[in-house]
What we know:
alpha+beta, Nuclear Transport Factor 2, Chain: A, six-stranded mixed β-sheet, about 45% strand, Nuclear transport factor 2 family protein, NTF2-like_dom_sf, SnoaL-like
Amino acid sequence: MNSEQLIKEWFNAWEKGDFLHLPISDDFKHTSPFGTIHGKKEYLSLVKENKDKFLGYRFKIHDGIYDKNSACVRYTGIQGNFRLDVSEWYYIKNGVISEIVAYYHIGDIRKDRELSNT
Length: 118
């Protein structure tokens, strides 16, 4: 599977709400304006505890640059009336995503959008 197919699999899993089967490594690392999460187990635990903030999105992909072991995708995540414009770098090892670095402006976080367990 090439990087573009792998990233499509990532987005498809999110749109289906199937976060337990994301194509990520056990030592997965996710960095965003909220901080860095280390480990697949920790990442999935955070998602599970904050399903209302992570699930139910659809994604409009604007651009993508795909290389053998990395990719960069610019997209808009849409959840009801909430929209978030994002650029993400994906790093790939052994056929799965090992790291993501996400860039987006979060501004002031409304109480209903705050994450627990961070």
